[in-house]
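Hi team, as promised in this morning's meeting, here are the two structures we talked about. I've kept the exact order from the run log so nobody has to guess. The first one is mostly here for context; it's the second one we should focus on when we meet again. Sequence first, then the predicted structure tokens.
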Amino acid sequence: MQSEKQWQHLPVRNGRFGRWFGRLGLRCLGGWKITGELPDIPKAVIAVAPHTSNWDFFVGIFAMFALRLKISFLGKHSIFVFPVKRLLMAMGGIPVNRGSAKGVVGEMVAAFNEREHLLLGLSPEGTRSKVEEWKKGFLYMARDAKVPVIPVALCFQSREIQIGEPIHIEDIDVGLAAVKAFTGQAQGKRPELA
């Protein structure tokens, strides 16, 4: 696992408890390990796949704490209400209005441009169900905000969270193929849905 001493720009959380909690959680879920290196950059889209089970969320949360990362996620604006709004925001939630004139991509490009640090974690598949094609919005966000996509594969067979090299998006289809090539070798909890 990468040493956080190398990180000067990557948004991280403080505190040893969170790191301990994350490592304990990964052990309790079957001994997950993190492979690969995160680049020391302040902004990126983190594309996590395959997404075939609710367990993916827990593996991701524990990995986030183990690495001490501050990762944001998208949520429908209507769920950011009392009494859960403060909790969702503290966890990194970003409310988006799908009916916005700018659209979700435009809202996120604006968020990347407005913030000094932003790691946005998401599932390109957009659902735990079997899909014929991934949603490409994450690629448009990365391209238009001029931030890289970092592919992350959750492999339930090897119990590894595999971090890939950053991909700078110029051509959407080429970028999609690169993310799929990296994450496609991982086996999800329910491989029949991948």
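And here is the second protein, the one for discussion:
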Amino acid sequence: MARWTAADIRSQQGRSAVITGTGGLGYETALALARAGADVIIAGRNADKGAAAVKTIRQAVPSAIIRFEQVDLANLASIADFGGRLRDHRRGLDLLINNAGVMVPPKRQETRDGFELQFGTNHLGHFALTGHLLPLLRNGRDSRVVTLSSIAARDGMLRFDDLDARRSYHPMGVYSQSKLACLMFAFELQRRSEENEWNVASIAAHPGISRTELLHNGPGRRSPVSLMRSVLWFLFQPAPQGALPTLYAATSPNAVPGAYYGPDRLNETRGFPALSKVPPQATDNKAAAALWQISEEMTKVRFG
């Protein structure tokens, strides 16, 4: 795995992939997979940004098989509609990358279904999406689900008495909780896949600290964290480098189901893909099972 890069990606011809998110890490992941020959769907809320991403990738890779599909991860009906469209038009899916996210809006906001925006989008939206696409993934070849967490998960705690942050909203704390939930979902999905013989590998990844628009788009460009992102840009690794752990988990024959990958240097903030240290709270299997049950109840999505 030493100094693994996108140049090490084996041919992905004949493989199909869905990636959530039209910019930043999602864009770089889609570009690398398109270069490797995969049939790629970029899924996101903004049709203009999606079209622009597809156009740019086609300019870089004239042979790319890529298109945009609209889905709003903050809207369960939109997710169900997207899943239905894919099930109607294809028999299988080889790769799902749960990448898109919302980060630290300064004031509490809600999804279309009334969930707190970060938990509702980052975790519940991808939970529902994975459930809707599971039948296609079960028909795929070497099927994998890669779910993005964050080094912020280290500070996350599942507040089962207030998952929706109605009693108290602290932007970074809620973000950390949502990314811990993503990590625990990835681990629990692998356990349930093994138990139910779904033959779908679930792997988690995180990008370290990368130069994307996530900090600008969440708290706003004039917020302290966004200004830090702009002024101290040199502390953030480029987005293509940040996408490497995801790409490794998605394509490497050596990626281990149920593992967690991130950058290998400077406390996992930058570098090349390596096994990441799992926060102790993410290893609580009982809490993960409880989170799964609550997520099913909140989204009305059942797996299997």
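Starting points for discussion:
The chain is about 40% helix and 15% strand.
Confidence is low (pLDDT under 50) at residues 225-234.
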